[in-house]
Amino acid sequence: MTINILNTSTIEKIAAGEVIENPRSIVKELVENSIDASATNIKVSLKSGGIEEIIVSDNGSGIDDNSIILAFERHATSKILSFDDLYSSYYFGFRGEALASIKACSKVTVSTKTIDRDLGTKVQFNELDIKKSEIAMNKGTVIQVTNLFYNTPVRKKFLSSENVEASKVSELLKELAIGNNISIEYYLDDKLIFKTFKDSTIEQKMIQLISKNLEGHIISFEMQNELYNVKAYISDNTFFRANRKNQYIYVNNRIIDSKDISISIEKAYSSIIPNGKFPSFVLFISTEANNLDVNIHPNKKNISFSNFEQLLEDLYISTKNSLKPDDLFIHTPDGK
Ligand code: ADP
Ligand code: MG
Predict the structure, then answer these.
(1) Could you list the residue ranges forming a coiled coil in this record (predicted)?
(2) Cα 171 from chain centroid?
(3) Closest to 89 in 3D by CA, of 76, 78, 101
C-alpha cells in the first residue's frame, strides 16, 4: 500500500470545517479507518464519555512499519485522491486528515502489526516527542486517545456531559453496525454496552439495536427505478416511536440525513399509526455517484439526488404497497 499526498485544490475544498468536535468525531474517524483496513472485529471502549480515554482496536491490515509516523501527518492518505470520488469510493477515508487532527488535540498511542511482521510497533505521540518501541500483538491496530482537548481548554468547555457524549458515540456505532458487515463491541467504563455480530441480518441488527419489540414486525422490500436501487426494512403498524431517531438511510453505504425521504416513507403510514408517531426503518439506496451531489461538507450528512421527486414518489408507493392492510394487525379505537 502506498501513501500519497493530496493535491492542493482537493485540500482546499475539504479543509474548511474539518475539525474534531467531540468523542463521537474521533470514534467515527477511527472506526471508519478500521473498516477501510478490512477489519471484521472492532472494539471501542470509552472512559468518562471518551473525554478521558478512547480506545479503538481492530483486526484489520495494520499499518506498515515505515508508514506509521507518516500516517499521522496532515494529508497523508493511502485511499482516494479526489473529493468527487467520495460516494463512488469503497473507502470512508479520503482526506488524510483524521489522525493528524486527533493527534493535534489529544495524546495518542498507536500499536499496529501487519501480517508479515512477528512483532508490532508501538508509537506514542506526546507534543513534539515521539517514542517508538516493539510490542507483541495480533495483526491489526489499536489506537488509544487520551486527554481530549487538554491543550485547548476552550474547546473542552464545549463538550456536553459524559453521558451525552457517550450516547452520541452509541448512536454512531449503531449506524456503523447496521451499515457494515462487521462485529462491533462497545464498552463504557469497562461495561459492555452492546456487541453486534458479523453476518447477522439487518432484521437481527434492528431487533438488537432498536428494539426487541420489532421481532416479527419488520417488512422488507426492494425497489428499483431508472437511477436508484433500494433495499428497505420497515417496521409494521405495531411499532412506532415518538421521534425519527431509529430511521437509518444509507446511500452507497454512507449514512445520510434526509427529512424528505423520511416524510415520504411516513406518509405511507398515515392511516395506520397514530398522528405524531414515527416508524423505524433502514434503507439502503444505491446509485451511480454521478446521480449525487456532494458539494457540501462530507461530515454533514446531507446530499442532493438527481430526479429526487421520482425517488420520493417511488419510495412512498413501495412502502404503501408493502404495508398492505390484510398483512397487518389492525388497531381499532377500543383496542380490539
Ligand atoms: P484517511 O483515512 O483519509 O486516509 P487518516 O488520517 O484517517 O486518513 O489515516 C491515514 C492513513 O493511516 C490511512 O490512509 C491508512 O493508510 C492508515 N490507517 C489509519 N488507521 C488505520 C487502521 N486502523 N488500520 C490500518 N491502517 C490505518
Ligand atoms: Mg480516515
Answers:
(1) none
(2) 9
(3) 78
The per-residue pLDDT for range 263-309, each reduced to its tens digit, is 999 999 998 999 999 999 999 999 998 898 865 555 667 788 999 99
CATH architecture of the domain 208-327 equals: 2-Layer Sandwich (3.30)
Helical axes 162-179 vs 23-36, angle rounded to 10°: 20
- Ligand closest to CA 94: 1
**Helix, strand, or coil (residue 305):** strand
Please report the pLDDT score of residue 327 as a whole number. Answer: 60
Measured from the Cα of 141, ligand 1's closest atom is 23
Which residue among 41, 99, 125 has the greatest number of ligand 1 atoms within 8 angstroms of its CB, and so is best to mutate?
Answer: 99
Could you give the ipTM of this predicted complex?
A: 0.99
Q: What are the structural domain ranges in the chain?
A: 4-195, 208-327
pTM above 0.95, yes or no: no
The CATH number of the structural domain formed by 4-195 is: 3.30.565.10
Cα separation of 182 and 172, whole Å? Answer: 14
Among the bound ligands, name the one nearest to the CA of residue 80: 1
Buried b or exposed e, range 149-177, using 16+ CB within 10 angstroms: beeeeeeeeebeebeebbbbbbebbbbbb
Ligand 1 contacts (CB < 6 A) are: 29, 33-34, 37, 58, 60-63, 71, 76-79, 93-100, 141
Helices and strands (DSSP H and E) totals, the chain: 9, 17
Ligand 1 atom closest to the CA of 99, numbered from 1? 6
| pLDDT above 90: residue 2 | no
Report CA(303)–ligand 2 centroid distance (Å). Answer: 20
| Probe target for ligand 1 pocket from 77, 91, 92, 106, with the most ligand atoms within 8 Å of CB | 77
Q: Which residue has the cell 456532494?
A: 294
Question: Of 183, 287, 169, which is closest to residue 227 (Cα–Cα)?
Answer: 287
Cα of 283 to ligand 1 centre, how many Å?
Answer: 28
153 pLDDT exceeds 90?
A: no
